[in-house]
Amino acid sequence: MTLITVAPTGAESAKADVPALPVTIEELVQTAKECEAAGAAVVHVHIRDDDARPTLDLARLRDTVQALRQSTNLIVQLSTGGAVTDPYEHRLRVLDAAPDACSLTCGTVNFGDDVFMNPWPFMVELYQRTQELEIVPEFELFDLGQVRALNRLVDAYGPPYGGHVHCDLVMGVPGGMPGDNRTLVAAVEALPEGASWSATGVGRTSLPVMYAALASGGHLRVGMEDTLTYAKGRPVTGNAELVERAAALARIAQREPMPADEARTFLGVRTGSRAR
C-alpha cells in the first residue's frame, strides 16, 4: 500500500498570492477532510496567524490539532521547522501541542535564498523530546549528508517512539538534493536498515519524484507547501486534487492508498492519540 501525506500550507507562500492556500483553522480542516476522502492518511501542518503569517503560537497549534482530530481520522503531524526565522525554543515547544507525529529535519540546508538551521545539538534535543513525549518523528532529509546524520542520530540515541524509522526525502529545493531518480536511489540505499520512506518533489520535480518513489517502493507526500502548479501554466486549485493524482498513480502502480488506521500501525503512532 502507499502512505500519502498531504502538506497543505507551508510557511513560504503568501495567501495574497495564492488564494487557494488554507491558512485559517476552518480552511485547514475543510482541506484535511477533502484530502482524507481523496486518499491521504497524514496531514503535515504549518499554521498561520490572523494576518495569514507563519506562526508557532502554542494555543493556536493546540486548537488546530484538536480541530483536525475532531473532524478527521488523519494522523496529525506538526512541523517543527516553522519558518526559517523561528527560534529553536519555539520549534521545540511545538511538541507541547501533543500531535501524533512531527517533522525532524536532520541538518542545516540552504533553502533558496535563506538558511534553514538544524545544528546537531538541536536535532538531539528535539529527538529525545519526541521519545519522552511518545510522538513519532518523520525524519526530513534534504540532502545525502542528512541521511548520514539520521544514521548517526539513531545509532547514538536509539529508535524513535513507535520503534520504526520513517523518512521523507525532500527533493528539488534550491540548495538541497535534486529531484531525480539517481539521487533518490542513492538516498534510499543509505537509509537505516528497515526504514520506510516517502518522497516529496518540490516545484517542477513533483511528478518525476512521485514516479520514481512509486517505482522504487516508496511512499508519497504532496501538497501546496511543495508545489503550486498542477501542470505547466495551470495553478493548483486545491490540495485535494494533488492527493487525488497521487492516489490515482498509486492505484496504477497497484499499491492502493493506505487508510489512516493502517498508517497508525505502520508508523507506530500511539494508541488512543485520536480524540474524536
What can you tell me about this protein's structure?
- The chain is of the alpha/beta class and 276 residues long.
- The protein is built from nine helices and 14 strands.
- It has helices spanning 25-38, 58-71, 88-93, 120-133, 144-157, 181-189, 206-215, 239-252, 260-267; strands at 4-6, 42-45, 47-48, 54-55, 75-78, 101-105, 109-111, 114-116, 136-141, 166-171, 196-201, 219-222, 229-231, 234-235.
- The strands form four sheets. The chain has an eight-stranded parallel beta barrel with strand order 1-2-5-6-9-10-11-12, surrounded by eight helices. The chain has a two-stranded antiparallel sheet with strand order 3-4.
- α3 links the parallel β5 (75-78) and β6 (101-105).
- α1 (25-38) runs parallel beside α2 (58-71).
- The protein is globular, with a radius of gyration of 17 Å.
- The mean pLDDT is 96.
Short overview:
The protein is α/β, with parallel strands linked by helices and 276 residues long. The chain has helices at residues 25-38, 58-71, 88-93, 120-133, 144-157, 181-189, 206-215, 239-252, 260-267; strands at residues 4-6, 42-45, 47-48, 54-55, 75-78, 101-105, 109-111, 114-116, 136-141, 166-171, 196-201, 219-222, 229-231, 234-235. The model has no long low-confidence stretch (mean pLDDT 96).
Q: Regarding quaternary structure, how should these chains be classified?
A: single chain
Radius of gyration: 17 Å
Count of helix runs? 9
- pLDDT under 50 segments (min length 5)? none
Strand content: 15-25%
Helix-and-strand structural type:
alpha/beta
- Order of helices and strands, N to C? EHEEEHEHEEEHEHEHEHEEEHH
Cα separation of the termini? 25 Å
Question: How many β-strand runs?
Answer: 14
Average predicted local confidence, pLDDT:
96
